[in-house]
Amino acid sequence: MAEPNSTALAGAKIGAGTALPFAFFVPQIDALVLGMIAAFLASIMLKKIDDRPKAVAAVLLSSLLAAYCSPVAAQWVASAISGISITEELRLTLALLIGAVTPSIVPIAIAAIGKKVKGA
Questions:
Q1: DSSP one-letter code for 24
Q2: For each successive 10 residues of the chain (120 residues), what is the average pLDDT?
Q3: What's the burial of 65, exposed, middle or buried (CB within 10 Å: 0-12/13-18/19+)?
């Protein structure tokens, strides 16, 4: 049996390879790559991501969310906090943050939704 980290590493590599073709459809390629790198590193370190399908899903979802949501998040941050303007640095920082945080938030959200569905 392979160790969980090596299996997750292989799955994260597959997820990163799967996300790259979306670069043709995403206008924020730099955010996609930063989100992919952050998700790749986060999925290697998380104990909840212990097999290949979870790692593929984590990297793919996180990189796509970083690419599509970072411009929206930058707009929201700039409007919510006075004195902050929308810059490339803000957008890329948020893409990195989204890519790093999403692999740990999605399993928590899925578990919470599952509890609500089973309880209702």
A1: G
A2: 59 68 71 88 84 82 89 93 90 94 86 83
A3: buried
